[in-house]
Amino acid sequence: MWTDGKIENFVVQKIKLLYTDKPNLARLRRGVGKQIGELPELIEYVLLPDSMTSVQEQFVSKAVYTALTLYALHQQGKSGCMCEFPVDKGNVRKSVSFGTAVRKLCNENTRIAVTRRFERIMTSKDVLELSIHSRSLISQMRQKDIALDYGRFATDLYWFQQPKFRRLVILQWGKDFYKEIKEDK
Fold first, then answer.
1. What is the per-residue burial (b if ≥16 Cβ within 10 Å, else e) of 119-130?
2. Max Cα–Cα distance, the chain, nearest Å
3. Residue 185: enclosing H or E segment and its boundaries?
4. Smallest Cα–Cα separation from 156: which of 29, 47, 66, 28?
5. Contact yes or no for 114/100 (Cβ under 8 A)
6. pLDDT of residue 89
């Protein structure tokens, strides 16, 4: 059984191997907005080490694939790693969630456009649609050097695919995004 921690650790380990590997990052970037299997050469990046039920494997593979392809887009042209690794502070684990990272894109001039894009992401029907809508915000994060915890993001994407838990993921992203906005006022 894959737990949240296993998904997170798997993605973090992949990113640590990939972040300076320009040819493989370029390969992965071509997978943004595409289904797993559309580009067979990318399957090797999401081969999972443990056996799982086929449904769970499908959810984990899609989450890992989406997180890694978006990470490759985020990392393009950057020397420092754009993956924010979580830091343990006492009993609390701190990291940059997707909602918090998107919020960092907002200023007086961009708030409305960023909010619209973010809301499109939150109404996505599946991770493929989410990947397509996320592309522009991830590109903006790259331009502004805003890192994201991709291990946590992959875990969120795993739960997002399950209708029973999708609303909880969206609610958490929304809390992280709008909490920051309220603190700005």
1. ebbbebeebbeb
2. 49
3. none
4. 66
5. no
6. 58
* Angular region, 94: left φ>0, alpha ψ -120 to 50, beta rest: beta
Q: Do the beta carbons of residue 166 and residue 63 sit within 8 Å?
A: no
Q: How confident is the model at residue 45 (pLDDT cuts 50, 70, 90)?
A: confident
Q: Which of 97, 113, 85, 112 is nearest to 177 (CA)?
A: 97
Rounded distance between C-alpha atoms, residue 151 and residue 69, angstroms: 13
Strands 87-89 and 92-94: antiparallel
The tens digit of pLDDT for each residue in 106-115 reads 999 999 999 9
What's at 10, amino acid-wise? F
Tokens, residue 13: 């380990």
Q: Which residues lie below 8 Å from residue 125, measured CB to CB, with a gap of 6+?
A: none
